[in-house]
Design goal:
Helix content is about 70%, strand content about 0%. By secondary structure, the chain is mainly alpha-helical. Helix 3 (about 45-55) crosses helix 16 (about 335-365), helix 10 (about 175-190) packs across helix 16 (about 335-365) and helix 19 (about 415-430) packs antiparallel against helix 20 (about 445-465). Residues about 1-30 and about 225-240 have low confidence and may be disordered.
């Protein structure tokens, strides 16, 4: 199936490769849609957008399922390092694709140039209906849970919790949902008023997140160095109770947990039209941002395992955040409050960046007339894709109300990773056609190894949960009728434009 998709004819690339951020008059018939996005973000802001979109909740929680596997600290750290290096291969691949265009849209635009409208649309539509909006909803919900844990609020609509519409229970966890919806709306309205404001907020929040993680690392190391930790000296790796055939899938599963925490590194390219000198700054931002995250992730997980024995970490409840438990173990209630605030800040920062970037996918799709055309509007004063931001906000809030975001995003994993395969192969395709002529770091090894690893992920995902995988593929393909509708609208519009 992938070979069929890869061999599909791409559109004429030459008209897009050296395009500027000016919007073509063919985009839409509305005069307001000709307002351009403004290039105002430099390398530092772009790098912090990468770090802000990667550092969410995974770094604070994933150590628990890893510890529960029974592998030693050495193998867990190896999983974080190896997953980080694989992510770096992906970073090199996306950095290479950033040479293709200076238009907005990131992965949506790269897929369109490499394979045409259909594959690009499916990726963008999946983000709009499931993956992107679901991620915003899920992290908004985690933010609300963390906030409610620190500042307990009244329990609203408790008498309506049994009310349901099919499998949807809109009033379950109503207080948490209300907070989640409120923060999504507030951040959307804030970013409505200009990407410079959103990027400035991200600069502050992401810098604070990095400082907080460094503090957590220091506490873990200091706690261990003073001999207070139960396993300050790591035990040597023992595999006697595992055969190689048993150990390999366990290690692979641990590595997958780490890989989820690295995801999101490529989304910064969605803001290409608002980044100065994007063909230089986006590749640098992705590579520098991923490098920073890799070092932080390895060190903070070493700190966790220095401060608490693995068997204690493995016993942490799913409803608790490992980093908070470790900090409480080190510093008592003060540590718990401090790291709770860090988790709250981290989810807040992730939300802010995701709201900025996902809307740019839909904006670019609308420009190419494979989405609701109003989403191509740029605010004449704030120069933001304000309609796309509002559309994204509405879908995210509906997913919060439904409470189905975790299930939907889990189902979309297989399809989302399939697009990563296509992106890496797209780089090879563009290089072989000499459409990308610049030298790409680690090419061709980076995209080839990245494809091999992602195919391993897809195979493992399908074997472990075939029904959910097939359901996820069905969800993605449910966008096909909408694609046909948008193409028909585009054809009708072009005919009206060409009529005398």
């Amino acid at each position: 199936m992938l070979s069929i998709l890869i061999s599909s004819p791409a559109i004429n690339n030459t008209k897009y490769l050296d395009s500027t951020h000016q919007i073509s008059s063919e985009t839409t018939g509305l005069e307001e849609n000709k307002v351009p996005l403004k290039r105002i973000l430099g390398l530092t802001a772009a790098t912090l957008l990468v770090a802000g979109n990667v550092i969410g909740t995974g770094v604070f929680k994933k150590i628990v399922p890893m510890a529960a596997t029974g592998l030693s600290e050495y193998y867990i750290l190896a999983a974080w390092i190896f997953a980080g290096l694989i992510t770096m291969l992906g970073a090199f691949s996306i950095a290479g694709l950033a040479r293709l265009t200076t238009e907005a849209g990131g992965n949506v635009e790269y897929l369109r140039i490499c394979y045409g409208d259909f594959i690009s649309f499916l990726y963008g539509w999946t983000n709009f209906t499931v993956a992107g909006s679901g991620a915003i909803a899920a992290v908004g919900f985690i933010f609300a849970q963390s906030f409610n844990a620190l500042v307990p609020l009244p329990h609203f609509f408790g008498h309506l919790e049994s009310f349901s519409i099919g499998f949807i229970h809109p009033f379950t966890d109503a207080t948490t949902k209300l907070i989640a919806i409120l923060i999504i709306i507030l951040l959307t309205m804030y970013n409505y008023r200009g990407i410079k404001k959103g990027a400035a907020l991200n600069n502050v929040v992401t810098s604070a997140k990095i400082i907080g993680i460094l503090l957590l690392i220091f506490l873990g190391f200091f706690f261990s160095q003073n001999g207070q930790a139960a396993n300050a000296t790591f035990v040597k790796p023992m595999m006697d109770h595992y055969s190689l055939s048993t150990w390999t899938p366990i290690f692979f599963g641990v590595m997958l947990n780490a890989f989820w925490a690295y995801d999101g590194f490529s989304n910064v390219a969605a803001a290409t039209a608002e980044i100065k000198n994007p063909k230089r700054n986006i590749p640098l931002a992705i590579i520098i941002g991923v490098s920073i995250v890799l070092v932080l992730y390895v060190l903070v997980n070493y700190a966790y395992m220095s401060a608490m024995p693995l068997d204690q970490i493995a016993g942490i409840s799913e409803n608790k955040v490992a980093a908070i438990v470790v900090a409480q173990n080190i510093m008592g209630p003060a540590g718990m409050v401090m790291i709770s605030l860090l988790v709250l800040l981290s989810t807040f920062g992730y939300l802010n960046v995701s709201i900025i970037l996902f809307a740019r996918f839909y904006y670019r799709m609308a420009q190419k007339k494979v989405f609701f055309y109003h989403a191509a509007k740029v605010h004449p004063r704030f120069q933001t894709p304000y309609v796309a931001l509002i559309y994204s906000m509405i879908v995210s809030c509906l997913l919060v109300i439904s409470g189905s975001f975790d299930v939907l995003t889990d189902m979309a994993v297989f399809g989302a990773f399939s697009f990563y395969v296509l992106l890496a192969i797209g780089l090879i395709k563009m290089k072989r056609k000499r459409i990308i002529k610049e030298k790409i770091p680690a090419y061709p090894y980076a995209p080839v190894l990245f494809v091999i690893f992602i195919l391993m992920v897809l195979t493992s995902t399908f074997i472990n949960n075939p029904s959910r995988t097939l359901t996820g593929i069905t969800l993605i393909l449910s966008g096909v009728p909408f694609y046909i509708y948008f193409k028909m609208k585009k054809k009708s519009y072009n005919q009206n434009e060409n009529s005398p």
